[in-house]
Protein backbone atom coordinates (compact mmCIF):
# COMPACT_ATOMS: atom_id res chain seq x y z
CA UNK A 1 0.00 0.00 0.00
CA UNK A 2 1.06 3.54 -0.65
CA UNK A 3 0.30 4.86 2.84
CA UNK A 4 3.21 4.98 5.24
CA UNK A 5 3.55 1.92 7.43
CA UNK A 6 4.69 2.61 10.98
CA UNK A 7 4.97 -1.06 11.87
CA UNK A 8 4.13 -4.19 9.95
CA UNK A 9 3.93 -7.81 11.05
CA UNK A 10 3.99 -10.36 8.23
CA UNK A 11 3.37 -14.03 8.90
CA UNK A 12 3.43 -16.38 5.93
CA UNK A 13 3.30 -20.06 6.77
CA UNK A 14 3.03 -23.32 4.92
CA UNK A 15 0.67 -26.06 5.93
CA UNK A 16 3.66 -28.18 6.83
CA UNK A 17 6.86 -27.45 8.76
CA UNK A 18 8.59 -24.30 7.43
CA UNK A 19 12.32 -24.90 7.07
CA UNK A 20 15.37 -23.49 5.34
CA UNK A 21 16.89 -25.06 2.22
CA UNK A 22 14.03 -27.49 1.63
CA UNK A 23 11.38 -27.44 -1.04
CA UNK A 24 8.24 -25.52 -0.31
CA UNK A 25 5.62 -28.15 0.29
CA UNK A 26 2.45 -26.17 0.61
CA UNK A 27 0.70 -23.33 -1.10
CA UNK A 28 -1.98 -22.78 1.50
CA UNK A 29 -0.88 -19.84 3.55
CA UNK A 30 -1.83 -18.05 6.70
CA UNK A 31 -1.14 -14.33 6.60
CA UNK A 32 -1.57 -11.83 9.35
CA UNK A 33 -0.73 -8.24 8.61
CA UNK A 34 -0.80 -5.72 11.41
CA UNK A 35 -0.69 -2.20 10.05
CA UNK A 36 -0.46 0.88 12.22
CA UNK A 37 -1.32 3.49 9.63
CA UNK A 38 -2.89 6.88 9.36
CA UNK A 39 -6.19 6.14 7.75
CA UNK A 40 -7.54 2.88 6.39
CA UNK A 41 -10.22 3.62 3.83
CA UNK A 42 -12.33 1.93 1.27
CA UNK A 43 -9.75 2.55 -1.42
CA UNK A 44 -7.13 0.58 0.51
CA UNK A 45 -9.62 -2.24 1.13
CA UNK A 46 -10.34 -2.48 -2.58
CA UNK A 47 -6.61 -2.52 -3.25
CA UNK A 48 -6.19 -5.47 -0.87
CA UNK A 49 -9.15 -7.27 -2.46
CA UNK A 50 -7.75 -6.84 -5.97
CA UNK A 51 -4.24 -7.91 -4.98
CA UNK A 52 -5.34 -11.00 -3.07
CA UNK A 53 -7.96 -12.09 -5.60
CA UNK A 54 -5.34 -11.98 -8.35
CA UNK A 55 -2.79 -13.89 -6.27
CA UNK A 56 -5.19 -16.52 -4.89
CA UNK A 57 -7.82 -17.60 -7.46
CA UNK A 58 -11.11 -18.95 -6.12
CA UNK A 59 -10.33 -22.48 -7.34
CA UNK A 60 -6.80 -22.72 -5.90
CA UNK A 61 -5.15 -23.00 -2.46
CA UNK A 62 -5.99 -19.93 -0.47
CA UNK A 63 -5.02 -17.33 2.08
CA UNK A 64 -6.59 -15.85 5.22
CA UNK A 65 -5.81 -12.21 5.95
CA UNK A 66 -6.40 -10.04 8.98
CA UNK A 67 -5.51 -6.37 9.31
CA UNK A 68 -5.81 -4.51 12.61
CA UNK A 69 -5.07 -1.03 13.89
CA UNK A 70 -4.45 -0.59 17.61
CA UNK A 71 -5.90 -4.03 18.18
CA UNK A 72 -9.14 -3.29 16.30
CA UNK A 73 -9.80 -5.42 13.23
CA UNK A 74 -10.26 -3.35 10.08
CA UNK A 75 -9.92 -6.04 7.41
CA UNK A 76 -10.60 -9.76 7.73
CA UNK A 77 -11.14 -11.91 4.66
CA UNK A 78 -10.16 -15.18 3.01
CA UNK A 79 -9.50 -16.08 -0.61
CA UNK A 80 -9.21 -19.39 -2.44
CA UNK A 81 -9.93 -22.89 -1.16
CA UNK A 82 -9.41 -24.65 2.17
CA UNK A 83 -9.87 -28.05 0.52
CA UNK A 84 -9.46 -28.60 -3.20
CA UNK A 85 -10.70 -32.18 -2.94
CA UNK A 86 -13.90 -31.29 -1.12
CA UNK A 87 -14.43 -27.95 -2.84
CA UNK A 88 -14.54 -26.04 0.47
CA UNK A 89 -13.78 -22.31 0.26
CA UNK A 90 -11.30 -20.88 2.73
CA UNK A 91 -12.62 -18.74 5.61
CA UNK A 92 -10.88 -16.56 8.22
CA UNK A 93 -11.79 -19.22 10.78
CA UNK A 94 -9.59 -21.87 9.17
CA UNK A 95 -6.74 -23.34 11.22
CA UNK A 96 -3.27 -23.42 9.64
CA UNK A 97 0.09 -24.86 10.56
CA UNK A 98 2.09 -21.70 11.23
CA UNK A 99 5.49 -23.32 10.82
CA UNK A 100 8.49 -21.36 12.03
CA UNK A 101 6.35 -18.60 13.51
CA UNK A 102 6.27 -21.16 16.35
CA UNK A 103 9.75 -19.89 17.20
CA UNK A 104 8.23 -16.67 18.54
CA UNK A 105 6.25 -18.67 21.09
CA UNK A 106 9.32 -20.69 22.01
CA UNK A 107 11.42 -17.56 22.53
CA UNK A 108 8.77 -15.90 24.71
CA UNK A 109 8.42 -19.12 26.73
CA UNK A 110 12.16 -19.01 27.42
CA UNK A 111 11.90 -15.35 28.44
CA UNK A 112 8.99 -16.16 30.77
CA UNK A 113 11.11 -18.78 32.50
CA UNK A 114 14.04 -16.35 32.63
CA UNK A 115 11.88 -13.80 34.45
CA UNK A 116 10.80 -16.51 36.87
CA UNK A 117 14.44 -17.30 37.66
CA UNK A 118 14.23 -20.84 36.27
CA UNK A 119 16.96 -20.30 33.69
CA UNK A 120 19.43 -17.75 32.39
CA UNK A 121 20.10 -16.92 28.77
CA UNK A 122 23.77 -17.51 29.53
CA UNK A 123 23.17 -21.01 30.89
CA UNK A 124 25.21 -23.78 29.29
CA UNK A 125 22.77 -26.10 27.51
CA UNK A 126 24.31 -29.04 29.37
CA UNK A 127 22.62 -27.73 32.52
CA UNK A 128 19.34 -28.96 31.02
CA UNK A 129 20.66 -31.47 28.48
CA UNK A 130 23.42 -33.25 30.41
CA UNK A 131 25.74 -35.31 28.26
CA UNK A 132 25.01 -33.35 25.08
CA UNK A 133 28.26 -33.36 23.03
CA UNK A 134 29.46 -29.76 22.70
CA UNK A 135 32.94 -30.68 21.39
CA UNK A 136 34.71 -28.65 24.05
CA UNK A 137 32.62 -25.53 23.44
CA UNK A 138 30.23 -23.69 25.72
CA UNK A 139 26.86 -23.47 23.97
CA UNK A 140 24.35 -21.24 25.71
CA UNK A 141 20.59 -20.77 25.50
CA UNK A 142 21.34 -17.43 23.83
CA UNK A 143 23.21 -19.28 21.08
CA UNK A 144 20.21 -21.53 20.48
CA UNK A 145 17.81 -18.58 20.34
CA UNK A 146 19.93 -16.68 17.81
CA UNK A 147 20.85 -19.58 15.47
CA UNK A 148 24.51 -19.09 16.33
CA UNK A 149 25.15 -22.36 18.22
CA UNK A 150 26.94 -24.17 15.39
CA UNK A 151 24.87 -27.30 16.09
CA UNK A 152 23.88 -29.19 12.95
CA UNK A 153 20.29 -28.45 11.92
CA UNK A 154 18.52 -31.75 11.35
CA UNK A 155 16.38 -30.31 8.55
CA UNK A 156 19.60 -29.74 6.59
CA UNK A 157 20.77 -33.34 6.92
CA UNK A 158 20.34 -35.52 3.83
CA UNK A 159 19.47 -38.49 6.02
CA UNK A 160 16.49 -36.59 7.45
CA UNK A 161 14.59 -36.53 4.15
CA UNK A 162 13.84 -40.25 4.46
CA UNK A 163 12.51 -39.80 8.01
CA UNK A 164 9.64 -37.37 7.44
CA UNK A 165 7.00 -39.99 8.30
CA UNK A 166 8.80 -41.30 11.38
CA UNK A 167 7.32 -40.57 14.80
CA UNK A 168 10.14 -39.55 17.15
CA UNK A 169 10.21 -38.97 20.87
CA UNK A 170 11.95 -35.78 21.96
CA UNK A 171 15.02 -37.74 23.03
CA UNK A 172 15.10 -39.76 19.80
CA UNK A 173 15.09 -36.69 17.59
CA UNK A 174 17.88 -35.03 19.59
CA UNK A 175 19.83 -38.29 19.32
CA UNK A 176 19.27 -38.16 15.55
CA UNK A 177 21.44 -35.05 15.17
CA UNK A 178 23.49 -34.62 18.36
CA UNK A 179 26.56 -36.57 17.18
CA UNK A 180 26.89 -34.63 13.93
CA UNK A 181 29.99 -32.43 13.61
CA UNK A 182 29.39 -28.78 14.43
CA UNK A 183 29.15 -26.33 11.56
CA UNK A 184 31.19 -23.67 13.42
CA UNK A 185 32.16 -22.56 16.91
CA UNK A 186 29.36 -20.95 18.96
CA UNK A 187 28.83 -17.29 18.14
CA UNK A 188 31.09 -17.30 15.10
CA UNK A 189 28.38 -17.49 12.42
CA UNK A 190 24.61 -17.31 11.89
CA UNK A 191 22.91 -20.31 10.29
CA UNK A 192 19.16 -20.89 10.59
CA UNK A 193 18.79 -23.87 12.87
CA UNK A 194 15.73 -26.00 13.61
CA UNK A 195 17.72 -28.33 15.88
CA UNK A 196 18.42 -25.38 18.19
CA UNK A 197 14.74 -24.48 18.60
CA UNK A 198 13.71 -28.10 19.01
CA UNK A 199 16.24 -28.28 21.85
CA UNK A 200 14.76 -25.12 23.38
CA UNK A 201 11.45 -26.99 23.64
CA UNK A 202 13.21 -29.67 25.67
CA UNK A 203 14.84 -27.01 27.87
CA UNK A 204 11.44 -25.39 28.46
CA UNK A 205 10.13 -28.76 29.60
CA UNK A 206 13.07 -29.34 31.96
CA UNK A 207 13.00 -25.82 33.43
CA UNK A 208 9.22 -25.59 33.86
CA UNK A 209 8.56 -29.18 34.89
CA UNK A 210 5.91 -29.65 32.21
CA UNK A 211 6.23 -30.64 28.53
CA UNK A 212 6.50 -27.89 25.92
CA UNK A 213 3.03 -28.70 24.57
CA UNK A 214 1.49 -28.34 28.03
CA UNK A 215 3.41 -25.12 28.63
CA UNK A 216 1.93 -23.63 25.46
CA UNK A 217 -1.59 -24.65 26.44
CA UNK A 218 -1.55 -23.64 30.09
CA UNK A 219 0.79 -20.65 30.06
CA UNK A 220 0.02 -19.03 26.69
CA UNK A 221 -3.01 -20.28 24.73
CA UNK A 222 -5.49 -20.50 27.60
CA UNK A 223 -4.52 -17.25 29.39
CA UNK A 224 -4.65 -15.29 26.12
CA UNK A 225 -7.93 -16.86 25.01
CA UNK A 226 -6.37 -18.47 21.95
CA UNK A 227 -9.12 -21.07 21.64
CA UNK A 228 -8.22 -22.21 18.12
CA UNK A 229 -4.48 -22.71 18.62
CA UNK A 230 -2.88 -26.12 19.04
CA UNK A 231 0.36 -28.01 19.29
CA UNK A 232 0.17 -29.61 15.85
CA UNK A 233 -1.18 -33.09 15.29
CA UNK A 234 -2.01 -35.19 12.24
CA UNK A 235 -4.35 -37.47 14.21
CA UNK A 236 -6.31 -35.03 16.37
CA UNK A 237 -9.64 -33.86 14.95
CA UNK A 238 -9.16 -30.11 14.53
CA UNK A 239 -12.24 -28.14 13.51
CA UNK A 240 -11.70 -25.96 10.42
CA UNK A 241 -8.26 -27.40 9.63
CA UNK A 242 -7.09 -26.14 6.21
CA UNK A 243 -5.43 -28.63 3.88
CA UNK A 244 -1.89 -28.18 2.58
CA UNK A 245 -0.77 -28.41 -1.04
CA UNK A 246 2.30 -28.12 -3.17
CA UNK A 247 2.69 -27.12 -6.78
CA UNK A 248 2.96 -29.90 -9.36
CA UNK A 249 3.14 -28.96 -13.03
CA UNK A 250 0.21 -26.73 -13.84
CA UNK A 251 -1.76 -27.93 -10.81
CA UNK A 252 -1.39 -29.02 -7.21
CA UNK A 253 -1.12 -32.14 -5.13
CA UNK A 254 -1.48 -32.82 -1.43
CA UNK A 255 1.54 -31.73 0.60
CA UNK A 256 4.00 -34.43 1.61
CA UNK A 257 3.31 -35.97 5.00
CA UNK A 258 5.54 -34.89 7.88
CA UNK A 259 5.14 -36.40 11.35
CA UNK A 260 4.24 -33.57 13.71
CA UNK A 261 6.46 -35.15 16.36
CA UNK A 262 9.38 -33.60 14.47
CA UNK A 263 8.86 -29.81 14.25
CA UNK A 264 8.34 -29.41 18.00
CA UNK A 265 9.30 -26.01 19.40
CA UNK A 266 10.76 -25.10 16.00
CA UNK A 267 7.50 -25.28 14.04
CA UNK A 268 4.60 -27.34 15.38
CA UNK A 269 1.93 -24.77 16.27
CA UNK A 270 -1.40 -24.46 14.46
CA UNK A 271 -3.52 -21.32 14.70
CA UNK A 272 -5.91 -18.82 13.09
CA UNK A 273 -5.65 -15.19 12.09
CA UNK A 274 -7.84 -14.18 15.05
CA UNK A 275 -5.71 -16.05 17.59
CA UNK A 276 -2.54 -14.67 16.07
CA UNK A 277 -3.86 -11.16 16.57
CA UNK A 278 -4.34 -12.02 20.25
CA UNK A 279 -0.71 -13.19 20.29
CA UNK A 280 0.62 -10.04 18.63
CA UNK A 281 -1.34 -7.85 21.03
CA UNK A 282 -0.04 -9.83 24.02
CA UNK A 283 3.52 -9.29 22.83
CA UNK A 284 2.94 -5.58 22.19
CA UNK A 285 1.23 -5.05 25.56
CA UNK A 286 3.74 -7.03 27.66
CA UNK A 287 1.04 -9.42 28.81
CA UNK A 288 3.43 -12.37 29.20
CA UNK A 289 6.83 -10.78 29.75
CA UNK A 290 8.23 -7.35 30.56
CA UNK A 291 9.23 -4.84 27.91
CA UNK A 292 12.92 -5.32 28.67
CA UNK A 293 12.54 -9.01 27.85
CA UNK A 294 10.71 -8.30 24.59
CA UNK A 295 13.48 -5.84 23.75
CA UNK A 296 15.89 -8.80 23.87
CA UNK A 297 13.66 -10.71 21.44
CA UNK A 298 13.45 -7.76 19.04
CA UNK A 299 17.14 -6.81 19.26
CA UNK A 300 19.45 -7.28 16.29
CA UNK A 301 22.00 -9.55 17.96
CA UNK A 302 25.64 -9.85 16.97
CA UNK A 303 28.31 -12.47 16.35
CA UNK A 304 31.48 -12.70 18.40
CA UNK A 305 33.14 -10.20 16.05
CA UNK A 306 30.34 -7.65 16.49
CA UNK A 307 28.69 -8.27 13.12
CA UNK A 308 24.89 -7.97 13.26
CA UNK A 309 22.90 -11.07 12.27
CA UNK A 310 19.45 -9.49 11.59
CA UNK A 311 17.85 -11.89 14.05
CA UNK A 312 16.57 -11.52 17.59
CA UNK A 313 14.92 -14.29 19.59
CA UNK A 314 12.28 -15.79 17.27
CA UNK A 315 11.86 -12.52 15.33
CA UNK A 316 13.76 -11.00 12.43
CA UNK A 317 14.13 -7.22 12.88
CA UNK A 318 14.09 -5.40 9.58
CA UNK A 319 12.47 -2.41 7.90
CA UNK A 320 10.32 -1.50 4.92
CA UNK A 321 10.84 1.94 3.42
CA UNK A 322 12.48 3.09 6.63
CA UNK A 323 9.74 1.74 8.91
CA UNK A 324 10.61 -1.00 11.45
CA UNK A 325 9.14 -4.44 10.92
CA UNK A 326 9.18 -7.76 12.73
Report the end-to-end length measured between terminal Cα atoms: 18 Å
Q: Give the tally of β-strands.
A: 13
Q: What pattern of helices and strands is seen along the backbone? A: EEHEEEEEHHHHHEEEEHHEE
Biggest beta-sheet profile: 4 strands, mixed
Overall mean pLDDT: 89
Structural class: alpha+beta
Query: What value does the Rg take, in angstroms?
Result: 20 Å
Oligomerization category of the chains in this entry: single chain
Overall body shape: globular
- Strand arrangement in the largest pleated sheet: 1-2-3-4
Number of helical stretches of at least 4 residues = 8
The low-pLDDT segments are 1-40
Percentage of helical residues? 25-40%
Bin the strand percentage: 15-25%
List keywords for this structure.
three-stranded antiparallel beta sheet, disordered N terminus, alpha+beta, 326 residues, 28% helix, 8 helices, 17% strand
What is the structure about, briefly put?
The chain is built from eight helices and 13 strands. With 326 residues, it is α+β, with helices and mostly antiparallel strands. The strands form five sheets. Strands 1-2-3-4 form a four-stranded mixed beta sheet, with helices on both faces. A three-stranded antiparallel beta sheet has the order 7-11-8.
Would you kindly provide a written description of the structure presented here, covering whatever features stand out?
By secondary structure, the protein is of the alpha+beta class. The chain contains eight helices and 13 strands. It has helices at about 40-55, 100-115, 140-145, 170-180, 195-210, 210-225, 275-285, 290-300; strands spanning about 10-15, 30-35, 65-70, 70-80, 80-85, 90, 95, 230, 245-250, 250-255, 270, 320, 325. The chain has a four-stranded mixed beta sheet, sandwiched between helices. Strands 7-11-8 form a three-stranded antiparallel beta sheet. Strands 5-6 form a two-stranded antiparallel sheet. The longest helix has 15 residues, at about 195-210. Residues about 1-40 have low confidence and may be disordered.
